[in-house]
Amino acid sequence: MNILVTGGAGYIGSGLLIKLGERFPRATITSLDNLEKGDYHYVKHLRNDRRYHLLVGDIRKKADVRKAIPQDTVTIMHLGAIPGIGPCREQPKKAIDTNIYGTHLLLEEAVKRNVKRFIFVSSAAVYGIPKQRPITEEHPLKPINLYGVTKLSGEKLVNAYYANNGLTTTILRFSNVYGMGAYTRWKTVIPKFVWQATNDQPLTIRADGKQQRNFVHVQDIVDAFVQCSKTSKKAVAGETFNLGGESLSISQIANIVIKEGQQKLGKKISKVHVPLEPDEVYTSEFDYSSKRASEKIGYKRKRKVAQSISELFDFALKLKANACS
Ligand SMILES: NC(=O)c1ccc[n+]([C@@H]2O[C@H](COP(=O)([O-])OP(=O)(O)OC[C@H]3O[C@@H](n4cnc5c(N)ncnc54)[C@H](O)[C@@H]3O)[C@@H](O)[C@H]2O)c1
Fold first, then answer.
1. Are residues 222 and 273 in the same domain?
2. What is the pLDDT of residues 167-196, one digit of tens each?
3. Model pTM greater than 0.90?
4. 40 CA distance to ligand 1 centroid (A)?
5. CA-based R_g, the chain, Å
6. Are residue 154 and residue 27 in the same domain, yes or no?
7. Whose Cα sits closest to atom 12 in ligand 1?
8. Same domain for 51 and 161
9. Which domain holds residue 207?
10. At the N or C end, where does the chain have fewer CB atoms within 10 A?
11. Residue 83 Cα: closest atom of ligand 1
12. pLDDT class of 226 with cuts at 50, 70, 90
């Protein structure tokens, strides 16, 4: 049996490739990534493992998609995307082509190849400004930025293929993913603050910092894919699950980074306030419920933000020391 991961060279996808190899030792695992952002360098050891096929190709190209779905493909885990509010704002056509048209091509080929399961990665951005607490899967879907719109469009396509083509589909809506992966990106707020602190820069807090976000560890996300794949098709078919973790304000995150950083670095860490991005949600409460995922796929949040910040500091310090030596 083959499992296809799109975006397998990316932050979440590369950790997923490793985990799938551990948990499904008899499967072959194919990754399709155009290396727009990701890099197979971080999983280069997998090249020596005959179970892995690390393809360079584009989900917007039919020939590449076909090549990535051999006849024995049982599951597609679709992570490849232009992720995030900023990247979608800056490259709207590419975001629409990749996140919507690319998803359509994969769904088409999945049906033709009789793929058993299709897991689509979506985002809490589909909800827009929170209107109810907690945010469950039933919360109104009113994205306020192009990223959320493309993810919601992808979801609608997925649901249409579930309803009309007999494809077993599941949608996973992640909140903000953080933590050390197979490779760690330093751009999202938690790693960015750690990076700034380690490199003698002030922490850049958007707006007054009272806005809340929900943070989920990358390894908890990777585990959830495995749990979802192992749950009966009946229980997950046509389902949508929120996958979240701890809700904290940006100021709370900054305070944890400052406390931990001052201990580890032995020096004072400062902060500055910068404007909010134009299409970013500002909300003082972002209470994200993963109850349905806990009940149906046994999803558990195991990792904690404070512990992860400490690990990120150790890693950032190691990288800095290596760069200086
Ligand atoms: N990181 C988060 O906080 C977060 C939160 C919610 C949802 N998500 C979703 O999770 C998924 C993975 O995100 P990530 O954080 O690992 O981002 P990432 O940028 O590290 O990974 C995305 C991967 O997709 C690849 N890609 C982009 N366009 C492609 C194309 N046309 N064809 C093939 N590959 C292509 C990139 O090269 C990259 O390796 C995305 O769908 C993203 O929207 C991420």
1. no
2. 999 999 999 999 988 777 788 899 999 999
3. yes
4. 14
5. 19
6. yes
7. 79
8. yes
9. 189-213+246-286+302-320
10. C
11. 43
12. very high
